Amino acid sequence: MDADALAELAKNRGLKLKRSRVRSPEKPGFGMFGLTDAAGEPVFGIRGKRALRASGEELESYLRGLEQDDWRKSLREAGASVSSGKRKKVREPVAAEIAAPEATPVANLKQPPPPALREAKGKDAEQLAELYALLGHAIAPELVRKNVKALARSGEPVLVIAQGDTVLGTCAYHATPMPHRDPPVGRITVLVLTEEARGKGFGRQLVAEAERRLGKLGCGMVEVTSNDRLREAHAFYRHLGYERTSMRFAKPLGGG
Q: Which of 50, 70, 130, 153 is most buried by a 10 A CB count?
C-alpha cells in the first residue's frame, strides 16, 4: 500500500499520517511513517515527538487491526440487550447471523487452514509465475516449475507462504562462495507477496527462514537487491536490519 493509500486509511480512522522528510535512502528514518490523533498527539510509530519508526507494512497492519476492533465492537452492540432492571447477558452473535439469520451456522462451515510456510512444489508454478509478474518478471509457469525442481535438487528450495493450495507469498535464496571472501555470501534472490497478504508479517517470516537456511549453509552475510522504484520494499529491508552498501550494475548477455 502506497503512502497516499495509507493516508486515506488513517483519515478513515480519525488519524493523521506523518511521513518521513528524509529524502536520502542512506539516512536513518527514510521511508518511515507514524500516526497522530486530531490534536497532533503521537498514536503509533512515533518515538518522542518527531522520530518516525513504523514501516508501511507495520502501519497498514495497525490500521487494519483498528478496523477489526471496530467490527467486533459493532457485533457486541448488535447483540446487547438492556432490561428495566438488571442488564441481561446475551451471547455475542456471529457475523453470519447478523447478515442472514437463515444462513448455515458458521460452526458448520469448513474453515480455511491457517497460512503456513513450506517449500514450493511443482503445482505452485502457475501462482508463482503470477507473483513474479508483480515484480515485472514475465516467465512461463513451465519454466518456473523447472527452476523450482532444480533449486530443490541443489539444496536451496524455493519458500512459500500458503493457505491450503493458495500461495500468498514466496522467497528464494542462494549461497555463493566468493574467491575474495570467507565464509560464503548468502543472497535473497526474490521476495514477493500478493497485494492482499502484505502487512501481515508474512514477508518477515519468509526472510527469517531464508536467513536461517543460509546460516546452515555456512554464509556469514546476507545480501538482497531491490529495484529502485520499490521504495516500500527498501524501508521493509531497513526495518529488518539491512543496510545499503553498494550499487548494482547489470548487463544482458547476447543469446541469453
A: 130
